[in-house]
């Protein structure tokens, strides 16, 4: 199985499937934008509106966190991850940490 085949769901149950719990899995990343984009974001902060550089940063961080979550599940021999959730935090004005976490399961 490849990590792209690992089912990731925010629900507790996978319809029509029975499974045994393997354990908790995580995918973590910390991302930052370059200085030029930070300056542009600072100007945008003055006038208001969406700061696209930070939206891109969070989207990239989310995708990396899910990819690492899937790899962690694959390494444990899982078929799926249930109850997946995200957590994020700012480390500084230009760095974000994103964690994806859930429960790895093996289908019976």
UniProtKB/TrEMBL annotation:
SUPFAM superfamilies: YbjQ-like (SSF117782). InterPro entries: UPF0145_dom_sf, UPF0145_YbjQ-like. Coiled coil: none annotated. Belongs to the UPF0145 family. PANTHER family: UPF0145 PROTEIN SCO3412, UPF0145 PROTEIN YBJQ. This is UPF0145 protein CBP76_12825. It comes from Companilactobacillus nuruki.
């Amino acid at each position: 199985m490849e990590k792209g085949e690992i089912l990731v769901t925010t629900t507790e149950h996978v319809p029509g499937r029975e499974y045994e719990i393997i354990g908790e899995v995580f995918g973590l990343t910390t991302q930052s934008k370059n200085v030029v984009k930070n300056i542009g974001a600072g100007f945008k902060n003055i006038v208001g509106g969406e700061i696209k550089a930070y939206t891109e940063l969070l989207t990239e961080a989310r995708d990396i966190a899910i990819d690492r979550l899937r790899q962690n599940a694959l390494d444990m021999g899982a078929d799926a991850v249930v109850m997946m959730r995200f957590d994020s935090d700012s480390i500084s004005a230009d760095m974000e940490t994103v964690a994806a976490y859930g429960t790895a399961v093996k289908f019976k």
